[in-house]
Write a structure and sequence with these properties.
Elements lengths: L4 E5 L3 H12 L3 E5 L3 H20 L5 H9 L1 E4 L10 E4 L5 H14 L6 E4 L6 H5 L8 E6 L8 E6 L5 H14 L3 E6 L6 H17 L5 H12 L5 H8 L1 H15 L8 H8 L16
Parallel strand pairs: 1-2, 1-4, 2-3, 4-5, 5-6, 7-8
Antiparallel strand pairs: 6-7
Helix pairs in contact: 1-2, 7-9, 7-10, 10-11
Bound molecules: acetoacetyl-coenzyme A and nicotinamide-adenine-dinucleotide.
The site of nicotinamide-adenine-dinucleotide has 28 residues, from helix 1, helix 4 and helix 10.
């Protein structure tokens, strides 16, 4: 089945990036968020990113306009009715995601449509079980920024049909031009199981006064050739997302390295979520 019509739930950091990737690959894309304000913000970030792509010589002005014309924004889940693939990229909250999957199951008419989650850490099987088609559900985990990072992790639940995984592997590589890896449905999959303890170690160093945030970041950029340091990366991921991902991994594994640092919780309590709110560990205003 050639996938021509896709849907994305959520138009935040990841939803807008994923929608851009799909539209640039030639798909017709419906993007749904819960408010006109959220939709407007998602549309603006896609327009900015496409413009940056043009400036960097990654796509032509005609391709930018064609990609924008393939994107349709809505607050209505019913607009997913004719979609062949829907990727959920709403906030990292299990109840919110379960409700979305239950609704998608009733709204998306084609019974062979694929329903995917971009969750960073949560069990795919719990979303699959909220539907009547758990074999058609898997994790398709993009990395931030989605139009730039090549990786897509395919997360396979105990009930995912292997043919669905193979189909999404071909789609991600051949149509989207991404690099894929496969992971079982375990907390943090591959990349976040490694990344979150690293980010939390860096935050704990700052919290303990062992080093400044600037020096932690300079150390990893200049000592280990990371494109950005862990404190700046946590700000970019979103401190709320880092917290939710850590909580979810810690809850299931009890791994102390994934236990969110108190400083991180306090910053989220204070609404200091990083780049998306203009202030996190660093100031972006
Ligand atoms: N469209 C297409 N290409 C673009 C683009 C766009 N909108 N924006 C940038 N690019 C391209 C550039 O042309 C450039 O390509 P070349 O190397 O071929 O020249 C490349 O992307 C890098 O762009 P910039 O030099 O402009 O870099 P930048 O400073 O704007 O952005 C960054 C840098 C890509 C964010 C880089 O700092 C980086 O990779 N940081 C680490 C990001 C990371 O680790 N992400 C993973 C987070 S964890 C996660 O996502 C999982 C989770 O579940 C939480
Ligand atoms: P975000 O806070 O930027 O955006 C979340 C969006 O979901 C918001 O616009 C919110 O209004 C919307 N939303 C909430 N409930 C909704 C609903 N019922 N229907 C539609 N939209 C709804 O978060 P984000 O960083 O884009 O993260 C989204 C998902 O992607 C999370 O599961 C996160 O773990 C995952 N993820 C994040 C990153 C990252 O670096 N931030 C990377 C990979 C995966």
């Amino acid at each position: 089945m050639a996938i021509e019509r896709a849907g994305v739930v959520g138009s935040g950091l990841m939803g807008s990036g994923i929608a851009e990737v799909l539209a640039r690959a030639g798909l017709d894309v419906v993007v749904r968020d819960i408010s006109e304000e959220a939709i407007a913000s998602g549309r603006t970030s896609i327009e900015k990113s496409l413009e940056k792509g043009v400036q960097r010589g990654k796509l032509s002005a005609e391709d930018r306009d064609a990609a924008l014309a393939r994107l349709h924004f809505t607050v209505d889940m019913a607009d997913f009715a004719d979609r062949q693939l829907v990727i959920e990229a709403a906030s990292e909250n299990e109840d919110v995601k379960k409700a979305i999957f239950a609704e998608l199951d009733t709204v998306v008419t084609a019974k062979d449509a694929i329903l995917a989650s971009n969750t960073s850490s949560m069990p795919i099987i719990r979303f699959a079980q909220a539907t009547g088609r758990p074999d058609r559900v898997l994790g398709i985990h993009f990395f931030n920024p989605a139009p730039v990072q090549p990786l897509v992790e395919l997360v396979v639940s105990e009930l995912t049909d292997p043919a669905v995984v193979d189909a999404m592997d071909s789609f991600a590589t051949d149509v989207l031009g991404k690099v894929t890896i496969r992971a079982s449905d375990r907390p943090g999959f591959v990349v976040n199981a490694l990344l979150i303890p690293f980010l939390f170690s860096a935050i704990r160093m700052v919290e303990a006064g062992h080093a400044t945030k600037e020096d932690v970041d300079l150390g990893m950029v200049n000592g280990c050739a990371h494109p950005m340091g862990p404190i700046a990366l946590a700000d970019r991921v979103g401190l709320d997302t880092c917290l939710f991902v850590g909580q979810s991994i810690y809850e299931e594994t009890g791994d102390p390295a994934a236990k969110p640092p108190v400083l991180l919780s306090r910053m989220v309590d204070a609404g200091l979520l990083g780049v998306k709110t203009g202030r996190g560990f660093y100031d972006y205003s």
